[in-house]
Each structure stands twice: as C-alpha cells, then as structure tokens.
Amino acid sequence: PESGGPSAPGTDFDPVPPNTEDRVVVPEGYEQRIVIRWGDPVVPGAPEFDFHHQTPEAQQRQFGYNNDFAGLIPLDGAGRRNLLVVNHEYTTETHMFPGYDAENPTEQQVRIAWAAHGQSVLLVMRDLARGGLTAEPSRYNRRITLNTEFEVRGPAAGSDHLKTSADPSGTRVLGTQNNCAGGVTPWGTMLSGEENVHQYFAHADRVTDPRTKRRLDRYGFNAGASTRKWERFDERWDLGREPNEANRFGWIVEIDPHDPDSTPVKHTALGRFKHEGATIEVAEDGRVVAYMGDDERFDYMYKFVSHGTMKPGGSAHARRHNMGLLDEGTLYVARFSGDSPAAEIDGSGALPADGEFDGSGEWLPLAGGAKSYVPGFTAEEVYVFTRLAADAVGATKMDRPEDVQPNPVNGRVYCALTNNSNRGTPGHAPVDETNPRIGNKHGHVLEMDDDATGTRFSWTLLLVCGDPEDSNTYFGGFDKNRVSPISCPDNLAFDRHGNLWISTDGNELGSHDGLFVVPVDGPQRGHVKQFLTVPNGAETCGPIVTDNLVTVCVQHPGEDAEDAQHPTSHWPDGGDSRPRPSLTAVWRDEGGRAGEIGRR
Ligand code: FEO
Ligand code: CA
Ligand code: CA
Ligand code: CA
After folding, report:
1. What positions belong to coiled-coil segments (predicted)?
2. What is the pLDDT of residues 177-202, one digit of tens each?
3. How remote is the CA of residue 421 from the centroid of ligand 3, in Å?
C-alpha cells in the first residue's frame, strides 16, 4: 500500500509488506521475543524439552503442541502479573517425532499426542525491560490434556446420548481436543471451542443404526481407521464400539485458571458443533450473551443468552456463580436477509446498487432449558445434535464462521467468515447478500448491530477480503490504494480504541499469514494495515492486543511441506531444527522501554 497519509489512533506504523520469510516480520521500530515454545516447561519441576527423548510424562507438564487461542487474565490492577491461558489445538506427528511411521505409530507416540492436546495455564510477568512477557514458575501453572477429567454440565448432562461404557453417568469426560479459538470471560475464566473433533475417531461405517449414522455424518465422522490410529490404544476412539464417545466432544469448555485444582467444565447449553470459540458480552440487565461460530462450509452462527445475571467482583464465589450462567439460558441460530434485489448479487463480488452488502436478520430460538423450539427435536437432541436442529429451522448457511466477537468500544459484533471454496458452485448453496462471492477464496468480515438479549439485528460486510487491486474486494469504503491485502480472516481482537485486529489462516495471495488492524469507525474505517507476518507454513492465531504489547500464537510452522518428514520451517530455533509452535510477543521500542502500540 501507499505509505503516508493519516492513520487512526493506535494504527500509526509502517505496514509490513506481503512476504515469504521464515521468521516473524514486524514493523520498523518494533521488537519481538518468544514467550514460550512447544515443549518448554509449564508445571514446576517439568523437564527441559528434549526432541530426541520425548515421553508422555514430560509432555503432560510441558507446553503442548500447536498453540491456537491465547488469553491474558490480569491478577493485579497494574496488569503486571497475569495468567496466560493457551489452547493446544492438534498434533502434527510427522513433525513431532523423528522417523514417524503414520501407519504404525507407537503407543508412546500416541500417549505423547494425548498429552500435547488441551490447554496450558501459566503465570506470566509483563516486564518490558526484560522482553515483553516472561513465563514464571507458579502454583497456577497447569496442563490440561486428553487425560484430564471434565464435568459435563447444563441441560444435556447425563443424557443417554453421552453415556459410554467408561462413563455410564454421561457426566464425566476424559479430556478436550481440537481446542481452536476461545475467549476470556468478564469473570476471569477461559472459554474454548472443541472444533474439528471428528478427525480423532475411527470406523463410523461400523455404526448400523440409521439415525446414529445420519447424526455422525452431519458432523463429518469418517469411515475406516483414523489418521492418528488412536483407536488401537483406546477403544473409545472406535465408533463401532463406543458411538456415544463422539457426542462427548464438540462443546464449549470453561477453565478456571485461578484454581489449579478445579475440574474444567463442558457446557451443553451452548450446543454441540464444530465450535470455533465463544466470546461474552454482558447485557445492560446483567445477563450474559455468548457469540459462537460453527467453522464449516455452509454452517451457522449462534448465540446463547443466559437466564441469570452476572455477579460482579473477582471472588471465587462470584466466579462459581458466573460459570453457572452458561448452564441455563436460550440458544439461538442466525438467519440473515439482504436488502438488495437478489438479481444484484451475481456472485462476482460487485457491490449492489445501494453500495453495500447489508440487511437485517433474526435469531431463531432452538432451545431454552428443557424446552425445545424445533419441531421433531427434544431439547436434549437440540443440544447434542445442534447442527441438525439448525438445519430444520432454516438458518443461513455461512462461509465458515470463525470468531464472533463483540467490540467493547462501539458495541457492535464482528464475525470472521474465513472462506468457502464451494459457495455457489454446482450442487452447493447459491450466493446471497451475506455470502456474496462464488467460490469465496479470501473470506469476508461481517459487522452486526445486535440487541444483545433480543432477536433482531442489522448487518453489513465491513471487508470483502483479497487483493485490493481486484474489483471483487471491499474495504469498508476506504481508498483501496492505501490498504494491505488480506486473505482468510480467522481470529479477532480489539484494542482500547475499538480498532479490529484480525489474524489470518490460509493466505491465498502468495504471502504468509499475518496479523492486521483495521479501524471500524471514523474516516479511517476500512484502512487495513498489516502488523506482522509469520514463518513458512504457519498460521497466525490467538492475538492478544494490549496498549503496549501484542502477542500472537504461531501455529503449525513448516506444515506446507510436500514431504511431511521435512518441514519447510526451522523457526524459531533455526539451523536444521524442527519447527516449534510458539507464542511471540511484539512491542514498540522507545529507547529501551515499550511505547504505545501503533503510536509514534
Ligand atoms: Fe481451527 Fe476454525 O480454525
Ligand atoms: Ca444492500
Ligand atoms: Ca481458528
Ligand atoms: Ca481457521
């Protein structure tokens, strides 16, 4: 983009140009430092990482693999001591283990992978003189893995659909997996979405009951052996033996990082689908609203409105009460309408005559407590097979909804729709004003004006992503000569000015993924600027944006290799090392101290 010209508050830096460097590239005048890497000690006493001598016992006390969402929870008013909570979405065995044989993984490798999933909780100090954010040993430090017991709560806890031979109560599940994005709640806990959970299970073809089969199909569970072959070491991953184990994943989980002995929770009231994450808005009357996306082509956006109201304050008592808010309320799915004639939405991405992709919409109730609003479904079925219930009410099929997040400054809600190669192609749903491009390669960002606890909203597309030189892109009406190209938006964050920060997954423009900022109000609305790029094959995840520090999770570096045994990246350790997913902190260097991000 052309440099120079005015910038909105908090966005005054020289944008990083598109590039393909095997490192994190930050703007001129900014510093960076690794906070923590895969394998670094988390729990006090954990051994140092030893790539050639990995064990499950070590991994379950070390930082897990493929960091995705990260959240910062301050422990003091100054924000010096904080809890850092991080998701470990999935494992990449070919990179983790030298000489890995995908057809015959060893039990040791499988057990390491179970320990590399889940979350890390650790104490971090903000000390910008010592390099951003430093991890400290503490009593809070904790790993949650596929062996950690979770309590199932809410209206579907104890449902017959959740009972297995290992858990006849249907209320206790070992572990969480594929934790993608998430959110920090106003009461100081972490929410996390169980996303592509189908990939861990084998033998959906051995299920004979047609209804069970149909439900497994709608959630993408596969026939035959699983990629990781876990079913050879624990039969809960074999759907032919334990079909209900599938229903024990695909939830929003909540972790109380203040209490390292707490049992994490799976909240059934928030429905079961490929949850990207959940973010909370507190309504004026104190009820809480959770916004959620189901990240699959042609799947839906949801919200949950609690029945009870939030107790303020940071006490353990308030926290326990507030965690209970997500167990009772109403679950809704979104239906969108455009305000332009359908004939003007031709699939090219050209704006309709009124100059905007925009319109109105409504939240369709699915279930509230024990009451179902969907004909043919019990409330329990709505919660456990939410996708099928949403199909039945005619929700709007979206281009892969990722983060859905309220902006704390202007109150509007933003959703990243990452892409959809099948949109409008033969045999698939046609374009509509909300998802207006055929084969949507670069995704778009939706902005909603939502009455938090109500059922009506208005919406507009803030960004239709891609190369600004292409006529099928839109940058909030801003001058396209001055914006950074952006492709495949995924995670969202807001700074104190209300600027929207967007990290990307799967850049289709020939550059690496990165982190961008875009003002959403005032004359600079739509002025997208790239803040950083990540190394070869990596995705940018879980941005944390504070006044003087930005962090990103660099996920799956090197994963674009044609030969999986030879990753394309050696980041961050360099030389001929295997890549290690890591969290990186970035700040503006003001002569040895950190200045405000985006202000010179
Ligand atoms: Fe794991 Fe939807 O990205
Ligand atoms: Ca319109
Ligand atoms: Ca994601
Ligand atoms: Ca993604």
Report:
1. none
2. 999 999 999 999 999 999 999 999 99
3. 17
Q: Is 295 in the pocket of ligand 1 (CB under 6 A)?
A: yes
pLDDT tens digit sequence for 231-282? 999 999 999 999 999 999 999 999 999 999 999 999 999 999 999 999 999 9
Give me 410's structure tokens: 């202007």
Band of the pLDDT at 79, cuts 50, 70, 90? confident
Ligand 1 pocket member 195 (CB < 6 A): yes
- The alpha carbon of 410 and the centre of ligand 2 are apart by a number of angstroms equal to 22
Q: How far is the CA of 492 from the centre of ligand 2 (A)?
A: 25
Give this complex's ipTM.
Answer: 0.97
What are 74's two structure tokens? 């301050």
Q: Is the CB of 447 under 6 A from ligand 1?
A: no
For ligand 1, atom 1, the nearest C-alpha belongs to 180
- 582's CB contacts (< 8 A; 6+ apart) are 34, 35, 36, 37, 38, 67, 553, 554, 571, 572
Peptide bond into 243 cis (omega under 30): no
Closest ligand 1 atom, residue 178 Cα: 1
Token pair recorded at residue 187: 């009461």
Please state whether the predicted TM-score (pTM) of the whole model is above 0.90. Answer: yes
Q: What is the mean pLDDT of residues 494-512?
A: 97
Give the confidence band of 2 by pLDDT, cuts at 50, 70, 90: low
327 lines ligand 1 (CB under 6 A): no
Q: Write the DSSP assignment of 258-295 as a string of letters.
A: T-TTPPPEEEGGG--S-EEEEEEEE-TTSEEEEEEEE-
The number of residues in the chain equals 600
